[in-house]
Design goal:
The protein is about 20% helix and about 25% strand. The protein is of the alpha+beta class and about 230 residues long. The strands form three sheets. Strands 5, 6, 7, 8, 11, 12, 13, 14 and 15 form a nine-stranded mixed beta sheet that branches. A four-stranded antiparallel beta sheet has the order 2-1-3-4. The longest helix has 9 residues.
Length: about 230
């Protein structure tokens, strides 16, 4: 098995993040730091991260979490702020979030130790849809604003891909995007003169936030995991 894939199966990180760990010189094989993510290894190769031996693949665990506002969607924070991992029992497993939600946004986020699944859900070429509900400032939503969101909005990093937009109320929007740019929904709405006041992610691919309260989580079923992999 390739080294980056081995790290992903060991629950260290997604495969892409594992490649970054290798490039940073944090991974060793049989006591020697290696730099080749394609190096062939197995459970007898003595793979270690930061000097700590990895036992190989651990049982897969994927959770859906309703992230509250103010909680960081990262595995750890150097300033001691609350993260999504503080809200779930990991049972000794090395969980990490799939994708990001801003600290000032709430809603559905996934936590997993399945690096292959994380890679599938975050790689740009798979275009996993994510649906948000936003409360907006500025003038009421009109047909022109919705059309611009659907056709694409020009941002400083380029035109956004076509989206699906639905008006829920004069100042409330449901928006589905297939990209993962930084603070994309907020920047799209701000470009239309309608700054986001509240933002909540209500769907991630086939999964919905339904049934979870803020800070609550649940284990994904095998059926749901199958739907995610089918994406």
């Amino acid at each position: 098995m390739r080294l980056a894939k081995y790290l992903a199966h060991a629950g260290v990180a997604s495969r892409r993040a594992a490649e970054s760990l290798i490039a940073a010189g944090r991974v060793s094989v049989d006591g020697r730091v290696v730099s080749d993510p394609a190096l062939d290894v197995d459970e007898h190769s003595g793979v270690a991260l930061d000097g700590r031996a990895l036992a190989g693949a651990e049982p897969r665990l994927t959770l859906a979490l309703y992230k509250p506002v103010g909680v960081l969607s990262t595995a750890r924070d150097t300033h001691g702020r609350a993260t999504v991992l503080d809200l779930v029992p990991a049972g000794g497993r090395r969980l990490y979030p799939v994708g990001r939600l801003d600290a000032d946004s709430s809603g559905l986020i996934l936590l997993t130790n399945d690096g292959e699944l994380a890679n599938l859900l975050t790689h740009p070429r798979f275009e996993v849809p994510k649906t948000y509900r936003a409360k907006l400032g500025g003038p009421p939503l009109d047909a022109q604003a919705l059309a611009r969101l659907c056709d694409g909005v020009e941002l400083e990093d380029g035109l956004t891909a076509p989206a699906q937009a639905r008006r829920l109320a004069a100042h409330e929007l449901e928006l589905t995007i297939h990209e993962g740019r930084n603070r994309q929904v907020r920047r799209m709405c701000a470009a239309l003169g309608r700054p986001v006041q509240e933002l909540r992610r209500v769907r991630f691919g086939p999964l919905a936030l339904d049934g979870l309260g803020e800070g609550e989580h649940r284990l994904l079923s095998e059926r749901e995991l199958g739907l995610l992999r089918a994406l």
